[in-house]
Write a structure and sequence with these properties.
OB fold (Dihydrolipoamide Acetyltransferase, E2P), 359 residues, single chain, 20 strands, eleven-stranded antiparallel beta sheet, alpha+beta, five-stranded antiparallel beta sheet, Immunoglobulin-like, 4 domains
């Protein structure tokens, strides 16, 4: 066991002493890859407090390259603050003011993010105390920086995890930061090309960003600064909902009319014979001689007609016809022997000649 420990210690010591180029293949590749990572600080913020007195906590947060080591130095503080990576690329920490600190509202705060052998730095441009405001830039005579264009690629969803890519075009050689209403802190845009500053803000779950949130860009060149407000919505317009054409129900319709139909009956030979006999008997009671005979004949003829009419009246019938106008424009009539109870305007369906209510 001792021999193994000595051997391992010797290997570690030799490896530490060897130049990077002489390290074994995998170790050299890993170190080389780590050395190539250029850290970036994309956002830096503080929760402003009402009073800077002992016991008060200052909560800081930065976000940028993941997997690094983030530290803060507060001018006037007796110690530095190490931040914890709570999520990939998001570092947070709290500094409790003590009685020996000399921290002021506008004390500069510097963040350092180390990844491998490289370090990125950023200075907080917000004050530590509520109501004091951001650090103001001094006016220096000479040409002022200009922001020529300020753009964003809108997202369809402003919930946590979605991204907002911003681009600012203006005077080269400066530093650009953004303030988004509804989000804490500032978004830092590095200069990717001469005069072109670009960066992406990943929406946090705690953000309250809306489509019309005001976004302000600040371009600093030396001691000079200029600002511009984004004139574009952060959320893309929702695609119009597809128009749905309701399918026509070929059996559905509306009651258009309810008619009572009377069908007259027809008298048969029984009614005619019966009526003729009765008419002849009545006619025999009228007149004498030949006149009685004429009366009998007239009575018989009149009885025939009367008998037929009575029989026809007895045989007449009534029924109801319901006229339904279907959705396709056609009409159907359904016959009922008795009052069906439907009214004009009722919604119904017809299936195989049978009508039913359609709720």
């Amino acid at each position: 066991m001792k021999i193994k420990q000595v051997f391992l210690s010797t290997v570690v010591a030799i490896s530490a002493a060897m130049p990077l180029a002489l390290l074994p293949g995998p170790l050299h590749a890993q170190a080389h890859t780590q050395a190539q990572v250029t850290p970036r600080i994309e956002g830096f913020n503080v929760d402003e407090v009402r009073r800077l007195v002992p016991g008060v906590e200052l909560n800081f947060g930065i976000y940028g390259t993941p997997g690094g080591l983030a530290t803060l130095h507060i001018a006037g503080a007796t110690r530095n603050l190490a931040l914890v990576e709570v999520e990939a690329g998001q570092y947070e920490g709290s500094y409790t003011i003590n009685s020996r600190d000399k921290i002021a509202a506008r004390s500069p705060v510097t963040a350092n993010l180390r990844v491998g052998n490289q370090v990125a730095s950023a200075v907080l441009n917000e004050s530590l105390q509520v109501g004091v405001g951001a650090h103001s830039a001094k006016f220096v005579p000479g040409p002022q920086p200009k922001i020529e264009r300020f753009n964003v690629a809108p997202t369809s969803d402003l919930s946590g995890g979605n991204e907002l890519p911003f681009t600012v075009f203006g005077t080269p050689g400066g530093k650009v930061d953004l303030a988004i209403a509804g989000a804490r802190g500032k978004v830092l845009l590095p200069e990717v090309n001469s005069g072109e500053y670009a960066g992406t803000y990943t929406i946090k779950r705690r953000d309250r960003i809306t489509s019309n949130s005001v976004v302000t860009a600040n371009l600093r060149v030396g001691e000079r600064v200029t600002s511009a407000t984004l004139g574009k919505a952060l959320q893309s317009a929702a695609a119009p909902a597809p128009v749905r054409i309701a399918a026509i129900c070929t059996t559905c319709g509306t009651v258009e009319a309810v008619n009572l139909i009377e069908v007259k009956g027809e008298g048969g030979y029984l009614g005619a014979i019966g009526g003729g006999v009765v008419g002849a008997l009545l006619g025999s009671q009228i007149g004498d001689g030949n006149g009685r005979t004429a009366a009998q004949i007239a009575g018989a003829l009149g009885g025939v007609y009367a008998g037929r009419a009575i029989e026809a009246n007895v045989r007449k019938s009534n029924h109801y016809e319901v006229l339904v106008r279907l959705q396709n424009g056609s009409a159907q009539t359904v016959v009922f022997a008795a009052d069906p109870g439907y009214k004009v305007g009722d919604k119904v369906k017809i299936s195989d000649g049978v009508i039913a209510r359609n709720p």
